[in-house]
């Protein structure tokens, strides 16, 4: 039977980019997938694609940085599928660059809210039910910026460093309840529609010699969610063509 037969997987920020590829792959492997993003129409298109391909999916549009919307989203999933087995925290703002000297409080608060608070809200809501069931997996999305500075990304890098620290701390608190907490570190995954010319220039800096595509993220995501990773918690897997080891 398929690896995720009947498992319930919530992917946040799944209307496009990495989240969509991960949601589609979980569905191909038999999961019942709750598809989240901000806008209902974009979420619905992803759900229709999964269902047309023979998979099972539910549209749960919500702002994952808003506690009331997160509560409604989980209640909707539980009413439909019963529970959540796997939470894949992927939603985030990626277009956040601003030189530190041009920063202001609004910029800082928005990025912290969407990229970091959302991971707390979703993980906390998911973990409370997972703890009662004595099983569950939480996977969150970091960035190379957590350990190596990106120019103009003080706030973004702070959220990703925060996600790595939170992941280790949650892994400890939740281990006695049978919940594993891990993460992925994407790098140079072309979700931003770069031109061929831009790709050729930047590809020279990737040891494996090419840009990643969203589908490159799905192997690590599914591995960490699967029982093959039953003894792994508090860890991150980089999926970046070798960029971070240079
Ligand atoms: P993307 O912009 O295509 O996907 C992010 C999604 O999150 C979007 O669909 C967006 O609408 C959604 N989103 C934003 N705010 C939201 C909110 N409040 N509630 C619900 N959904 C919300 O970008 P991507 O490249 O696919 O990035 C996905 C994740 O991977 C992000 O966390 C990003 O920081 C991380 N990441 C990506 C790369 C890369 O190379 N692409 C590198 C490092 C980290």
Automatic annotation (TrEMBL):
UniProt keywords, alphabetically: Oxidoreductase
EC number per UniProt: 1.1.1.-
Gene Ontology molecular function, alphabetical: oxidoreductase activity
Keyword field contains Oxidoreductase: yes
Origin: domain of life: Bacteria
Enzyme class: oxidoreductase
Keyword RNA-binding: no
Pfam family, one: adh_short_C2
InterPro entries the UniProt entry points to: NAD(P)-bd_dom_sf (IPR036291), SDR_fam (IPR002347)
PANTHER family xrefs: 3-OXOACYL-[ACYL-CARRIER-PROTEIN] REDUCTASE, CHLOROPLASTIC, SHORT-CHAIN DEHYDROGENASES/REDUCTASES FAMILY MEMBER
Similarity comment text for this entry: Belongs to the short-chain dehydrogenases/reductases (SDR) family.
Name of the molecule in the record: SDR family NAD(P)-dependent oxidoreductase
Species of origin: Deinococcus hohokamensis
């Amino acid at each position: 039977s398929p690896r995720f037969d009947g498992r319930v997987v919530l992917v946040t920020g799944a209307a496009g980019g990495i989240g969509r590829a991960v949601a589609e792959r979980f569905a191909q492997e038999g999961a019942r997938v709750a598809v989240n993003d901000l806008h209902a129409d974009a979420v619905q298109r992803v759900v229709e694609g999964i269902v047309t391909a023979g998979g099972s999916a539910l549209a749960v549009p919500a702002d994952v940085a808003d506690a009331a919307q997160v509560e409604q989203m989980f209640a909707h999933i539980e009413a439909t599928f019963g529970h959540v087995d796997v939470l894949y925290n992927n939603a985030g703002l990626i277009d956040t660059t601003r030189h530190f000297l041009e920063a202001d409080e609004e910029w800082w608060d928005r990025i912290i809210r969407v990229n970091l608070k959302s991971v707390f809200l979703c993980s906390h809501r998911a973990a409370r039910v997972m703890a009662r069931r004595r099983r569950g997996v939480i996977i969150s999305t970091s960035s190379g910026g957590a350990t190596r500075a990106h120019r103009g990304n003080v706030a973004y890098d702070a959220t990703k460093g925060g996600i790595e620290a939170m992941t280790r701390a949650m892994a400890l608190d939740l281990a006695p309840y049978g919940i594993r907490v891990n993460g992925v570190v994407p790098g140079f995954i072309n979700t931003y529609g770069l031109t061929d010319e831009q790709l050729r220039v930047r590809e020279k800096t990737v040891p494996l010699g090419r840009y990643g595509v969203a589908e490159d993220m799905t192997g690590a995501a599914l591995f960490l969610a699967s029982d093959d990773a039953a003894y792994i918690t508090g860890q991150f897997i980089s999926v970046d063509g070798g960029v971070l080891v240079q």
